[in-house]
Amino acid sequence: MPSEGDIVTSSKTMRIGVIGGDGTGPEVAREALKVLAAVAKLESFSYELQDFDFGGERYLRTGEVLPEGAVDEIKQLDAVLLGAIGHPDVAPGILEKGLLLRLRFELDQYINLRPVKLLPGVETPLAGKGPEDIDFVVVRENTEDLYCGVGGFLKKNTPDEVATQTAVFTRKGCERCVRWAFEYTRKRNSPKKMLTLVAKTNVLTYGHDLWWRTFQEVAKDYPDVKTDYNHVDACCMWMVKNPEYYDVIVTTNMFGDIITDLAGILQGGMGVAAGGNINPDAGGTSMFEPMGGSAPKYTGQNVINPIATINAMAMLLEQTGQTTAADRINKAVAVVTGTKMKSQAAGKMGYTTEQVGDLVCEAL
Ligand code: IPM
Ligand code: MN
Question: Would you say the pTM of this structure is higher than 0.85?
Fold first, then answer.
């Protein structure tokens, strides 16, 4: 049932930025936009798109990753859909730092939300596990840790070279993420209703001590949520052995990056895994993306799986208040993976990229 709040939201025109990006990014983004058009019609809400040509091609042409004023322009939007970035002719780090990480930081998208759900019909490498076993969510802090770019070289390119790369953790950055994760766990309201902190308190006795203390303190405000702690190495083991144990995980930026690739393969891989870079504050702009890269070798072949990007679109709609539209997409995707697609791997789906997008639209 829509509440009064939902009705107000749907009468306003949503403004969505689209960064198709590199490689197969534009192809998968196109399918997600097709699904958006179909669901907007069914749910009668209106939206406007603003296209941005950021990515490797533009960088090679102009030497610019993000043009002057781009961040301010994006801040005016309600949300952003990102296809993929990464170009074979651009050195590693330039686009990642100059576009993806810069947007995460400057838009203060302090939550990286990565749902891990095995959909019907999707294959997992875990023997004997099915959709009822693989259904958890990772909440990754998204603005601190080793990602801050704090560090440097001393005596570079000499035998005495020193390199430092410092992990930065702040009480504010940690607390807002942990609190959001508790709220999320409460709202998700699964029978487990459990939030697991994943860190490495036995070694990282400063930064992760801050996380541990903050977690304990914030937990007092959520007596209805069960709390739990795993060291990150043990978490990797449990995630493979007993994925059904987890409900919601909250973790630091670097560990979150690593464990969500592991989690991503458990749910069927990069063809289906999606994530959101979320600024949950009022007026914040969030950005949603498939977890996979630009897959240059499949570019332009109409074989890449658009499901992850369609899932990212569902997350975008959920975040912007179009929850019934989001549910509708999620259900349609489950029908398509469960009854139509042969595989989630590029070129093996039994359908082209465009056909998978059409199937989701039909199933809506
Ligand atoms: C991810 C990616 C990025 C990250 C890279 C591309 C900077 O791996 O979104 O998980 O490390 O966060
Ligand atoms: Mn990653």
Answer: yes
